[in-house]
Known about the structure:
By secondary structure, this protein is of the alpha+beta class.
Amino acid sequence: MRLLHTTKLKIEEFIGRRSDAVLVREGRDAVPEYTVPRYAILSHTWEEEEVSFQDWQGRMDSTKRKKGYAKILKSCERARQDGYDWIWIDTCCIDKTSSAELSEAINSMFQWYRDSDVCYVYLSDATGTQPVYIEDDWPSAVSRWYSRGWTLQEVIAPAQVRFLRRDWTDVGSKEDHLDAISTITGIDIYALKGGDLSRMSVARRFKWLARRETTRIEDMAYCMLGIFDINMPLLYGEGTKAFIRLQEEIINTTEDQSIFAWAGSKPKVHNKNIWKDFDLILSGYGIIAESPSQFERSASVAMFARPQPSRPHTVVTRHGTRVHLLMGQSVSNDDFMAVLDCQIGSTPGVFAGIDLRRIAKNRFIRLNHTHIFRFARCGLNGEVLIEGFDPTEEQKELVELDSPGISYKDWKLKEVYIAQSNLIPLPPGFWVLPSEQGMSIESVYPPEIWDTAANILQPPVARAKIGAVGLRVRTMSIALVLGYYSNSWYIDQPWCKLCSYSGEDRLSDVFAACEVPSQERSTIHQSRKDYSKLAGLKVSVRRSYVSSVPMNIVQFHVK
């Protein structure tokens, strides 16, 4: 850690943060050991011509002409007036040309702010003539400082915070304006007053960041490392993966399922056909949020986390996030509701829930990512039973409070894997092998899942109905519809069905009108026996392995 001397204006380096930490270097010369001094620290927003560590080590005549130099002088002057010989300023006290030093500094920054004697918050855009918030002498509502990601930890970590206007006049302390700061930022007073952040729910802490911004996308994750007491390497260039990586680290250190209680905005639909969610499914909505903004509606999640110690630990694996959830089956065989072990709202006994869709035997993706559901046990008159329920135990019946009259029965505890976008497996495709005797493929619906080179119909997820193939058999046109049977927990056998089809019919209409056959029937179907007999065509589909990859083989027999 480097500190700037407020009188000598020299940067000196310290090692350690224990009581026996020592000063080891002044410039290039070794000096005797000293205990680490008391220091002030600056919190501000970066502007044009900030002074870097290299500037401070170079020619001072050019450094003094930079706009940021005056900010450093004023900070030193204020610290000196308050009796501090040392101050830490991020612009000039970190060598940002060293990736190792930058990584160490960012991972240590929360602790540096916490260890400071006082933090000066410089509101460079706040003047006495601007609108104020709540109190006449409180200009912070108009300050850009409140919208930045890095300043979140800088108001939480220090015990003593002083706010300074553009002209460096003091407008009070954090303690003086506690209610106003909490209202502006959404930060709970418990946290502002130095409460134990590890006791607070993950969702609540991410909510503080939801409306903030950083210059670099990755910093939306890195600025939260201290808030969650996480240490991880910095990988600039990874984009939104940094935020996912942060959550994976948090999952490894906590049992708090509120990390999954987030809701995103509605996705943009690019296609308007039966596979309109093709891009949505492949881009993924796993159980892990992709942006802090998705926690904006998580303010109603309980402030303090009370996870059940008996619940098995959640683990992030290459197959997805392995988590134990209380799950109830919805009307569709493939869709389920899952209760998270976190209270939500002001009514006792109400838990947050999410909507999941099965994509394999015990693998799921999040289905309705725009909504956090609310589940409770209700009495005969529909009232919520405030004694609630234990989300780690099976339940006979729970009610989703936003859908009055709709209840889900037979809730079971399940260990499931919830995939992120790049982990979603493709179900077995349909490999269509037309007969060489007077038979050809005329068209396929939907065309976006058809591999023309291999004659494979490859859906992104398994559904009851997958697609249709338009066939020409001698002089006749026939439509073959393909799909999957399914039961309550896994994808079962494929099915196929022949349907009448003429040149005037659209293949998409034939597909839409085709009914899924009952599972008790054979996997060989003919919608019109006389027609199939006239065409002399029989078709079968069977599950097989092609080069160790599961595939549904579709074969035809022409008489």
